[in-house]
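Think of the structure tokens as a kind of shorthand, similar to the way a musician reads notation: each symbol stands for something richer, in this case the local conformation of the backbone. In the example below we present two proteins back to back. Begin with the first one, reading the sequence and then the tokens, and try to describe in your own words what changes along the chain.
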Amino acid sequence: MLGRDVLTVLKRAGIEAVGRNRADLDITDPAAVRAAVEGAAVVVNCAAWTDVDGAESAEEAATAVNGTAVRVLAEACAAAGVRLIHVSTDYVLPGDASEPYREDAVTGPVNAYGRSKLVGEQAVTELLPQDGYVVRTAWLYGEHGSNFVATMLKLAAQRDSLDVVDDQHGQPTWSYALAGRLVDLGLAALRGRAAGGIYHGTASGRTTWRGLAREAYRLSGLDPERIRPTTSEAFVRPAARPAFSVLAHDAWQQKAGLEPLADWREQLALALATPGFAALAEAARDGRAG
């Protein structure tokens, strides 16, 4: 999802880039990683084990991708003098705050996925203190790949109403908007205008999963009252979820001279106008009418 959007942004900007998928590159293979980064100016790592619940029973495998492989990548970039932008997650934080988490907040993952991602963060900040950029994102959705917004629109064609969790707070973030910001950060880094460290790549504002679903319905011409509130306790999952995933965005201006990403509602409106989401919304309206 995010990797495809990064390549699209780069292509539209006329910037030469090479994309590697799982078939092209095993990021747990040090020799392959060293060969892949050779000659690059910036590497953007969008690869990850993203099965949060699956990581609970396969933490070693998740850490191999989200942690150990990131260290391999950071070592290769350090040796080659390449800047690395690594995408991380709000799940490295404990999720028990009441105010937005600053970039220097104390970490404390509540599940295996978060622990595996924290290992990757620590590798980048340790091995690339000046040339490593950790960008935490959250509640990501986009045209490519499975995500919450797409799921809600698909279900709208099948069900009269949906129960959606209303006690988890976060910042829904459009993958294309994040991709643009990652490219901005890479360019700023190449120009010597961006300091290494941790950045928070999430939309401005905040809402709940129910709030996101209701706004997606409203913007798609569907009745938001079809989205009913429920609690996290009603949807027990193998992995615990942080209740509060709202992140602060001070580092963009302070360390890179860039503005934070736009409000989540603005991002969502733009995303839903893209062909993939527009088709889902049309199908949802047709299904409802039927």
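Once you have a description of the first chain, move to the second and do the same.
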Amino acid sequence: MTQTVEDYLQAGTRANTQRSYQQAIEHFEVTWGGFLPATSEAIARYLADFGSTLSANTLKLRLAALAQWHISQGFPDPTKAPMVRQVLRGIRTLHPRPERQAEPIQLAELERCSVWLEEQTLLAISDGNTARLLRTKRDRAMMLLGFWRAFRSDELCRLRVEHIQAKAGEGMLLFLPWSKSDRESKGQTYRAPALKRLCPVQAYLDWIELAGLRSGPAFRAIDRWGHLSEGALHVNSVIPLMRSILKQAGLEAQLYSSHSLRRGFATWAMHNGWDQKALMGYVGWRDAKSALRYVDSEPQFPNQLGANNGKVDVGAP
């Protein structure tokens, strides 16, 4: 089948970005009542009308979506007009907001969730509840891998069994055809460690063995009867799933988001002697500001893994 220019343009834009851009265009046209193609004056008024209620970052995303729409349709980009940029600067000045960040999941909290999931596994085996057994094994593998590999929720959902090599007691290699930090979509291979406690490798192997997975998405939805979906777990289901685990493990779930695992690992690494360059290489950050934004300045949790004073060798990136 011959691909069109539109097909390639769409493929070159991340799925999450496409959804965000579509929502932004709908907000401009439907919620605000704007008309496309738009003038720079209309976009300036749009920014002004939402300047006190939406964050500057949200407004920047809306501008990016509007710019992309105009460029893809062959129209001049009205968002580049000096008036629009000046209005955005004025909004930042008059309505400063601290950046909202997810609470990092600390090692003690990760272990608490892991223990609760293991307890639920034993109960499921005792009750003969196949659906619960599958969920607990899947969720434990996702949380441990999400933490130690500092994966985003969409990266966890896009992992495929045929792209993962895991060996108990040694480690695992995970290939992602593309990720947010892989700007040129060349694909990237990640390593994850085998650990004595909270081991992502063994948790993953336990999960795929129980589920009988040989190919396809590594993490999938499971219905009430224990049937696995053919497709990957939807990215929007990761946050409620994780908050449910945190809540049932006795933690204040609403403080956390899908970025909490990523922030938790970054904070743990920095407080256990990793320099910024090593952390950026392991996680895949190219911008030092991105790395610093994910790291808590104060160590909020003690060393939890016992051996090696809490330091865990997770291997070179």
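Compare your description with these statements about the second chain. The domain at 107-310 is CATH 1.10.443.10 (hpI Integrase; Chain A).
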